[in-house]
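Let us practice reading a record.
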Amino acid sequence: MCGLHAIGMKTLSIQNIIVPIDFSKMSVQAIQIAKQLARRFGASIHLAHVRHLNYAPDFVAPAPPIVPFSFVTYEQNAEQTALKELKEVASECGVSSATCDVLSGAPPFDEICRLAQTVPADLVVMPTHGRTGLKHVFLGSTAERIVQHSSCPVLVTRGSALQANNGSRFRIKTILVPVDFSNCSREGLRYAIAFATEFGAKIILVHATYLGYVYSSEGTAIYDIPGLQKAARKTAERKMRELVRSVNFGAVKFETAFTDGSPVIDICAFAKDHDVDLIITSTHGFTGFTHVLIGSIAEQVVRHAPCSVLVVPSHPQVRAANLAKSAGATTNTLANRQRLQKSPKGTKLTRNHRKLAAPSRLSPTHINSGNKK
């Protein structure tokens, strides 16, 4: 729970791992890392595929009355086909005992986050497709959305790491943990210590003493930038000593480091220069307009890091409550649609009623198959 002052040893327990699959090469390769983690922790693997509801021309254009067509049958056949493909992928990757889930209706990240609550999952393992620039603006990233909304930790694997570990042992020697001395970053450090203990890895705690931009209303003021940086570094070193004294690292080796630039840029550059295998960071739980303005360092690190990133949610209870709230709203909306669609003839419907009664892409369907423990 975010808010603890002292950080003690924590035993890492991972019993259920979810791997979102879109049948791309990268998502299939992520199964290999999940497989090795599952073997180490004795966990179960859940493969999840979210179907996009792409309507065929038959559904938008009038069909000849002599050709009967059942949308329900079409949906059932599509789900069964996706489930069959998912089982084939599981068999090819050597995880035939994995539970296979086919989901549809809501955006992929939303369905995955809900499934993670239902299972319940201890970890989501997935790759990032590395979209940048204008393409990223239009398409976004499912990985980033899951990082933003998931109530359990998310391991976002990089393509290079997937290729390097495909068919070989998944090794982690160096873990980078960004800290800003907040209670939330302490939660990320706690998880990192448990992870490092399991893999026998070394931890590097890094803090960016970023001053940001200095503005002057007159434009003539002279600032002693080196002096400000020196003072900020001195304060950061003091807080780092206090943090280290409050932490029980056990047998985990660790060292500290400081940078003076932008947190995201420096974290990614440091990881590249020091051959870091994994970055473990926490989120600060910004939502709504605050999240739009401030963004999330964790999401940006996921986007730009040269290695895999494991993101630990600092407010899992809040995220779980938000998902439950939105699920309840969706259920009520679906119930209203069903009620209105069955309204007796002659009932006068308002514009809002017709909107509620209209078909929606949010109608959830779920089909699964597998051996659950």
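A brief commentary: The longest strand covers residues 44-51.
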